[in-house]
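To: structure desk
From: M.T.
Subject: fold request, one chain
Message: Could you run this one when you get a chance? Sequence is below, nothing fancy, just the single chain.
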Amino acid sequence: MKKHLFVKKVTILLMTVLVVGALFFSVPTAAYYGSADISPAYTNLTTKSWVSAEAGTGDAKLAIDQDATTYWDAGSVSEKSWLMVDLGGTYAGMKKVEVVFPSFDAEYKYMLEASSDGEEWFTISDQSQASVIGGEDVLIQESPDIRYLKATLLDVSDGAVAGIAEIRTNNYLLKENLTIGADLSWDTAFLNRTYTTNSNTDVPSSDGRMIGTMHELGMTSARFRVWNEPRSENTGTPVTHVNGSMNPEDTLNKSLYVNDIGMKVGIDFHYSDSWADPSKQIKPKSWKDLSFDELVEAVYDFTYEVTEAHIDAGVTPYYIQVGNEIIDGTLWGNEKVPTGNEPRYAIEDPSYTAQPGGELLWEYWGSDDPAEQAAYDAAWDRFTRLIDAGLRATKDASPESKTKIHVIVGKTSLQKTQEFWRQLTSRLKEDYNNDFDIMSISYYPEWHGPMENLSRNLHAFATEFPEYELAVSETSHRASGGPSDTGYPNTIQGQADFLIDVMRGANDTINNSVSTVLVWEPAVWQSMFTELGDNWFQANDSTRIFRNAFSNYIPKTNDYLITDLYKTPVLAETIEVLNLDTNTIESTTVAWDELPEQAYSTLGSFTVNGKTEYGDVTAHVAVVMSADVLEKMTKEKVDAGEVSGPLVPQLTNSLKQAKHHFDRGSTENAMKFIDKYLRHLERKANERNITEEAKADLINHANMLLDAWE
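Reply: Done. Structure tokens follow.
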């Protein structure tokens, strides 16, 4: 991690853990912090800047502008009445598409198709025979990954707008698409603690170890850092114990435990005796006097030996990380004057930087000075040679393990990180015929900017380097402790919301590029546990995200229907749900809010909220005027004696003819008979056959029908 406030915490931590080796860190005691509201995470991808739309005619952007009052207008149904959305890359979690038409009270016939490449298309909704009213939610069962969606209008009812108001493409967080884990390196330092997922301090969850508890909570991956010969950053005193030291033996012990409970193991080589991050990358004491050639050999040997020890013990790491946050290089040497951020033992001993190393000279990036440019290139040559040694050792010792490079992206330094990836990948390939598998970054809003930065950065890497797997190797947020300037409060809910949004940002990266999100040090740094006393630590309620943020069921959340004026709408008793385990469509009952009569006593539209066991649902009800409404009202007036005599057959016959012509598709002729209906009402000879109140009421509603038909 980047230094700043973290350095103070690390110094205190190391003085306590690495020297004393007893109780290592203090977490606020007293009451449990609180609870969090957690729902399955998904994103409407049409909100993303990289999503675009085109159409055969009209302004396609209006169908993805997040404003249902605007719409793509095709003008009419023709060979040009199609709209295509390009998501910018493929998505495996595309399980629901919401289509909203401009006219809620109209019928639409259309086809909705999907494609991964724009060449091979498959149908996800065929409404060419049965019309859709107002809109629909389309649940997608088994399908290839989706990049393109194409809607083609086939027919619309008279008077309706031929277009689409909104297409919402919902990308869900699915367990098979994203691995969630953490750096759990401190686990063996806290063997005297009991970690639990419940508040009953007599019964621990799992076996009481932090790793076991995180696994129980839903994490499936653990990363462990490796220090060469761990020592105190303050005094330089070597650590004599094993547990919690992060030396190779301690790392192997944790890896064996993780492997036994079925979690993935990741190894993070710091190539230092203490912390390595962008502010310091200090050589191990035993390597400080080596020539550069000897340093390269030492990197290979150490990487190989630690990895081989894992293989020999029966643990095949899922990945090996060569260096930690190495945006500014690794194993710094005499390339330039030390920064002053190094551990005290290195600051006080200039021999640590007496020999060449692998620091990158970013101050010379883009320089027009030939000497500075030469120094920039030479630094890259040295750095790449060191990285090549670590990668070769990993592949030689464990060919099945993936290889990872881990950097950061500062708030305004995306271009710097892109330059890093370009330089490293091209030099590894061209100079060493070598490469790696995973590009990874840290993300802390304090140092790397708001959440949109994470999404932007991941998208940039996935777009420029599509052949690489991506990962967020470190991220975290506080659950308590004063005000926050990150956009997320320092609460249990804030911690949950932040981590869900990180997972969401990873999941929303094109082509399913991001494979892993790792929480940084949930026991120590911005902890996800609350101390209950007597060395018992309860997992914060925010940790439920590791299960509850993923979807098992995806319900339709919108239902569209029409009701006649004054007629109680018939709301659906059930709504369809996609069971992701079986890829089948099921149904679930809906409990609707109470429906007031005044809601459907006015022309227009309204919504009704409902609840299911899988989430909320909204009914969109269009209230329309129809000949049936006028016919019913006329009959009520007749039955009440408010209309009588010859006026009765005059009105009923006019309505009968109007309905006949309307049903045959001749709205113009239907309107002529409503005009006749009105003339009968207004004839002076009929004044004695109708009350004034009934006359005004029927005239008003007959005109409403004419307006609707127009």
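Reply (cont.): The radius of gyration is 34 Å. Let me know if you need anything else for the meeting.
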